[in-house]
Give the backbone structure.
Amino acid sequence: MTLGACGSSGGDSASSGGSKDGKKTDLKMIFWDSNQEPGLKDMADGFMKKNPDINVTVEIVPWDEYWTKLQAAAQGGDLPDIVVMHPDEVENYANGGILMDLTDVLEGDVANKSNFPEYVVEDFSVDGKFYGIPKDIGTLALYYNKDLFDAAGVAYPTSDWTWDDLTAAAEQLTDKEAGIYGLNADNNGQNFYWNLIWQNGGDIWEEETGACTFDSPETVEAMEYAVSFVEKGYSPTPADFANLTADEYFESGKSAMTFAGSWMLTEYQNVEELNFDVAELPAGKEKAAICSGMAFSVSANTKHPEEAKKLVEYLGSEEAQTIQAESGVAIPAYSGTQQPWVDKFTEFDASPFVKVEEYGHTSPGLTASTTEAGAILDEYMPQIFSLELPVEEGLKTITEKINETLQ
Amino acid sequence: MKKKAKNKNPRLTLTKRNVKTWGYAYLFIAPTVLGVLILNLWGVIQSFYYSFHEVKGFAAPIFIGLDNYIRLFADKEVWISLKNVFVYAIITVPIGVALSLLLAVLLNVKIKGKSFFRCIYFLPVVSAPAAVALVWKWLYNKDFGLFNQILGGMGISGPDWLGDPNMAMISVAIVGIWSMVGYNMILLLAGLQDVPAELYEAAEIDGAAPFQKFLKITVPMVSPTLFFVVVTSIISALQVFDVIFMMFKPSAPAFRSVESIVYLFYRYTFTNYNKGYGSTIVVVLFAIIMLLTVIQLKLQKKWVHYND
């Protein structure tokens, strides 16, 4: 009897999508940031309260393994029902037919796309179809260690700082004897040099042709500025960063300033001895910082497409995004829900992260799988930051090599 | 008249009882055989297949003949990684095997607390490689690490274990040796315990010195185990990945001097989504390992002593 019932319910649940006999439908969601786990679970709880017949579990896999795992799972047809997508990766998965088209959800009432910044929605559209319900936006700002500023008698950074102010402060804060550096000038695009390139009016890709423009005069100038901190000894060298990461330098009070994302707030906050605050990134010729969104995507092969869609629609709702804001770990994408996030922090001012929206640039997609640009950068950038390769010459080589792979 | 030796082994005749016995035997080995077929052999076949195709992202494979192989032979990073793993193998295998043998011999005598020491030496084998690598990374830290603190206390300024390209491979090799010694030691210890005590007694009566006993009795008697240990150590040395992956990011200045061939495979396959080229890299590694193992199987006649 039971066996027969099982078989038949398995058979037609594919067409009706509904759950039978009070049996709960299980949905699995996967993400990379353990800092966000409680917030995400709260959002899932909010959904389960409204949909008692659906059970949502959240799995956290660290960033370094996340994409490996997702790739293997996608190929095995075993992708979790809901995955958190990154703008650099979505094209690959969408083109591979791995993700469900969510256009109708974004055109519905609950998670309508007009509620989200356009660039986040667009970041997850491929060939006119939308594959992601915006989750949060991650922006960059300047974190600074107040104790080190006080000790060196330097005024705290302000929103109208320029590159010259940054250099001057880095110089004053650097204390060779105590092993303290002014700024983390790390070989890291997202967390450092992309921002400087945009601030100098440069870019990495030519918008129309898609060619690499690492050798444009603006970009070269910005990179020279980036490397100058290593040159002058105001920043740890790449060899130093091989011993301690930029985050560890900042967290241990060995670096006074670092460019870091809004997603790092919770982690830095958990370091008890660290007394920090946040300012907007200094301006070059213009103000600029990375501002990129993450999104919830649904597996095209999910066994429960209707329930999964219902879940992402809820995750994109004002209610769920407010829960996310209150958890304090990510700036929600839904417009108007950012203030609860800023208010959550009382020990420091989190508003510089929200202001980036006015001058943000989305991720340049350098890790896009279709190009092998990443491998080329891995080869030459360490030499540039180690001062073994002159900036202009190195960038010229990088540009040539990347453009070769594009043809 | 010569009797024809066609007398079949009675265990191999097709009697009802034998068939039943075989059935049980196959049943018992089935889990392992299935595991090898599905997890290993299938992967090998697929890698071969992919190596002749362009497999990017999630797109369907496109046949491109030998293009991947042509690219591979011109790719200087492949040669650098191959050089790196050979350097790694040349450092770790002789030192690691010699140390394992030494420890096995020392722990084979009747001394107090030898189970304790056996445990200590075996501990690295049961520790998670990722955790091991992270702890070593801290030990190696040039400013706060234990090693440089100790060296500093002795008035020596310690090297930059992780940042200096000339030092990095040595740092990786030390971790490699440390993690391999325990496992090999247990295998050799088992081999040593099979050596009949009479041989040593007879040698003692003849007045053999301890070192002579080691060289003339111990080494030949454990040579089958030693052979196994050497072969597996070389194979795992050529496949080294996890320690390097945890200790060095591609942006590290020393990365080029430690990147292993499996790390390169990992980067192409999982970071760059180029599975075709990634597969080509592992197929070449597979061929190299097979070749080396065949050579060793041939050479074993010269030094391995089977006591049948």
